[in-house]
Structure formats: C-alpha cells, structure tokens
Design brief:
alpha/beta; 8-stranded mixed β-sheet; 4-stranded antiparallel β-sheet
Amino acid sequence: MTAFLKVEGLTKHFSVKARNGLFSPRIAVKAVDDVSFSVARGETLGIVGESGCGKSTTGRLVLGMMAPTRGEVILDGIPVHTRHDAAWRQQRRRMQMVYQDPLSFLDKRQPIGRQVVEPLVIHGVGASMAEQRERAEELLSIVGLRKDQFDSHPNELSGGQRQRVVLARALVLDPELLVCDEPVSALDVSVAAQVVNLLKDVQDRRGLTYLFISHDLKIVRQVADRVMVMYLGKVMETAATADLFRRPLHPYTRALIAAVPSVKPRPQRRLLAQGDPPNPLEVPDGCVFSPRCPLASELCRTQRPALRLAAGGRAVACHYPQEPMASAPPQREGVGC
C-alpha cells in the first residue's frame, strides 16, 4: 500500500495541574501517545474508541491545527506544517475538517452561501465574486441543497441540511483529505444515514481520502476500509474492517463490539470492560486497559505491550490477543468473546 497520509510516532502532551491549588505540581497528560498509521489515497480509516481516547486530538494534529509534542505527519510525501504561515495555508487547501456540531461551527448571522464562499476568499480562489458564488452554488447542489438556499441562515435549516453546508464548505477548495470528526453524532438515525451515504458518494466521485472519527461502531462499519482502535491516547488494534468485526484480537476491541446494540441474539458469555476509563492523570504502568480487562494478568499490569504485527497485515497491542494463552488467567464467569 502506497501511503498518501503517513503518521509516525505522533504524540501530544498537555501540561495540567495534578490537583487544585496555587502550588500544585504540573504533570503531562498524554492525549496522544506514540501513534503511527498510514492511509492510502481514496481509503477511509475509521478511528474509534470511547470519549477521551485521543481520536479528535489525532485528527487536529493531522491537519496541523496544533503542534505535536513529537512525531510527524506526512501528506503525499510532504511534512505537514504546524506554523500557521503561507506554507501551512497552502497545505490546508488539500486537507479539511467536517465538524461534529454544525450549528456551533456555522455563523448564525451569516447566510450559508457566504460561509461556503469564505474559504475561496481566504485562499484567493476565483477570479471574481460571481465566479466564487457560482462555485459555492455548485457545491450546495452537490451536497443536496438548492441554489435558492444560498441566502438562507443556519437556523432556517434542519440539522441534516446544516451538516450538508459544513460538508460543502469543506469541499469548496477541492481537498484531497477530509477529517470527519463525529460528523453524524448530532443527527437522528435516518438523517445520519443520508449524510453517511452522501459522504460515500462524494468520496467515490472525487477519490477523497477520509479519516472518519466516531464512537459509533455501526457507522464506522459502514464507511471504513480499515479501523484503528484507540484507548487513553494509544493504539490498541488496527485491522481491515471486516476482519476487525469478525475476529477482534484485543480485549478492548471485543468489549466495544459487545457493547453495540443488536437485534440478533448474542452468546451468553461476552467479554465486557469493567468499570469506567481511568483518570488520564493516573495512567497505569502496564497495559493502559489492564484495570478494566477481565483477562489481565500480572504481566499486563506491569509491562506495557508493544503494537505488534499480526496475520493479515493487522496490528495489536496485547500480551494475550484474541484468545487467552496458557499462561493467562482463566476467564471469569459472565465474560466471554
């Protein structure tokens, strides 16, 4: 696979106070911790995990919206700039984000057409205002809105229509990479399905590359070619979508899939995560998932597993992937795969 987007050792630490108080010490929260992955041109990589796992921060680091503590993002062979200068703005024409909440992203006082035109003005694209308007109207039509809605305001549109405006604004500069950060989480099921179908249709027609960030595994299963599972800033597992859902290797992945609502009967014994995610200020020494993992051994609690290659081009960070090994503790009652 030739990588269009390549991420190597991406790390982002935030300095925060360990507790309240004027003289409290500051410690580093590892929002993203040594994350590496690659995406081929025209491919969709789904990034999944619970809230606070580092998904959205990873997306913003990829776009150069914040500087990493260390690591590198390479787009089509060129490192992504983090200084917001002319070179970064030129790269940003190739990379855009589709945001989660369109109503908070869009300016309620401005007509939606003018907001779609704005990126063209910022980047100096278009010979005249008439040409820029024509381009914006074309994009509104592509995403399923009418040209006569150009002068409508966000509060005059439905949630699904507002998300289409956000998508039109992201597409108006003809980018090659879209980072979709929970793009349908604020929509009801039927409208979300329409937006997902629209995203897939636009990708097919334009050959776009997607990073699709979501906590909804059902949606990710529909749109992603491959999936990367994150937990507390680290990559737990990566695999082709079909392989991941058919045979998850990491206990955390198995727990996420087990928690997805289903109308089909499930086995009585399922592997479920125990308790809530730990405080990001108190990351365990060993495997970050070990406090919640029913398969955890002393090895898991003391030694952090490396992300290792597995069969079929997969990767997993687990001492006991998929099935417990002979040295692993017996599985508890009420928990299974």
